[in-house]
Amino acid sequence: MSAVASSNIHLSTSSQAAAAMLAKVQAIAQGPLAAIADQIDRQGTYPAKVLKDLGKAGLYRAQTGLAGTPDLTSAIQGVAEVSKVCGATGFMVWCQAACALYMERSGNPALLGSEFEAHINGDRLGGTALSNPMKAMTGIEPMLLKAEPTENGYVVNGTLPWVSNLGEDHYFGGAATVYEEGQPTRDIMFMVPCQGSGIELKECPSFAGMEGTGTWGVRFTNFKVTAKNLIAENVPEFLDKVRPAFILLQVGMGLGVAQGAIDTMWAVEQHLGHVNKFLHDRPVELQLELDALSERTYALARLASEGQKPTLLDVLDVRAHASELALRAAQSALLHQGARGYLLSSSVQRRVRESHFVAIVTPALKHLRREMAKQSAQEMPA
User: Helix (H) and strand (E) counts for the chain?
Assistant: First the structure.
């Protein structure tokens, strides 16, 4: 197997339109994105133009039902193509995709129409603040935002430690627990404009990498939720609808980071293959595992696109496998590259940090394994 043969994300497109979209995404990723990947990772450069150009290429539109049946498979492949070059930008693409998911599934006319069109075209950018709610609803931690009913909706207070893909003119989907007479009654989900009254963005501590992800702490002070920005008043039911796509889109990050790592192994094979052949997790075996995982993921994505509900355990399993494979591939790439991979400027070194992020972003590998154990116990009672 040659380096060239292993360099492309395993594609399984269902139409010429999808193939054309992915070709545009690949050109953006390997061109303007590749040129600034190191700046995004270490200098905190936010790739606004790249993210908007990906929208113009049709990446954010693929998962929607605007042109008929959603093509979740192509959307995942697009996330993977971007993540192969820059994991941080792949993560922001996922944030934009998750936000589109909330808007479309909300059924709220105020979040659809021209607002939705601007989002999927990349004219406007948004993020997601469901890390805390996802963990809260599985009993891992309490909800950080509290809402109180008002005559016209709700007021929300509290602080989120970090939300990504944000900027002054951005927005994101968040959730809060509603309290009535001091008691929690239900959870609501809503869209939050970063320039909205009662919203304050606060700088986060420096991260080990991926500094350009537009990640901020967000403080809510009597932020108003009305019918115009309401996503759902039955959050568990809403999350049950969006969870498969939410998680499967995230798998694209792991697939891309793993593929990028495998490509860097092939890059040194001609010169170092005679010693690298004694290492475990060689590129041929990793590529075979990655291709098999990709096909499993796309099969689940096709079910979701067709309106069926993939088995949650299967969805969690491919997401966990993507984390584990990204970690192994990035670690092996470092060993294959040797000293040159230990340079701070090396894409291999960056990819090691990106693989760590894939494994800790919600749902983190430990959360996935916890939920998989619960699901397995339900399917196979003692």
Answer: 13, 8
**pLDDT (tens digit, 9 = 90+) per residue, 255-312?**
999 999 999 999 998 999 999 999 999 999 999 999 999 999 999 999 999 999 999 9
Nearest to 188 by CA among 251, 233, 144: 233
Measured between alpha carbons, how far is 150 from 147 in angstroms, rounded to an integer?
9
Give the mean pLDDT of the chain.
Answer: 93
Please identify which residue in the block is written with the tokens 């291709």: 291
Structure tokens at 54: 């990906």
Q: Residue 194 burial by CB count (10 A; 0-12/13-18/19+): exposed, middle or buried?
A: buried
Options 3.40.190.10, 3.40.50.2000, 1.20.140.10, 2.60.120.380; CATH for 236-379 is 1.20.140.10
Domain coordinates of the chain in residue numbers? 16-125, 127-235, 236-379
pTM strictly above 0.70: yes
Taking residue 285's Cβ as centre, other Cβ atoms within 10 Å add up to 12
Q: How many CB atoms lie within 10 A of CB 277?
A: 9
What's the pLDDT tens digit per position in 41-92?
999 999 999 999 999 999 999 999 987 889 999 999 999 999 999 999 999 9
Rounded to an integer, the average pLDDT of 24-34 is 98
**What pLDDT is stored for residue 379 in this prediction?**
67
Q: Which fold has domain 16-125?
A: Butyryl-Coa Dehydrogenase, subunit A; domain 1 (1.10.540)
> Which top CATH class is 127-235?
mainly beta
Nearest to 352 by CA among 363, 370, 337: 337
**Which residues are 148's β-sheet partners?**
155
Of 379, 365, 350, which Cα lies nearest the Cα of 261? 350
- Is the N-terminal amide bond of 363 cis, ω within 30° of 0? yes
Integer Cα distance of 302 and 266 in angstroms: 31
List % helix, strand, coil for the chain (3-state, nearest 5).
55, 15, 30
Query: Which amino acid belongs to residue 8?
Result: N
> How does pLDDT run across 212-233, given as a tens digit for each residue?
999 999 999 999 999 999 999 9
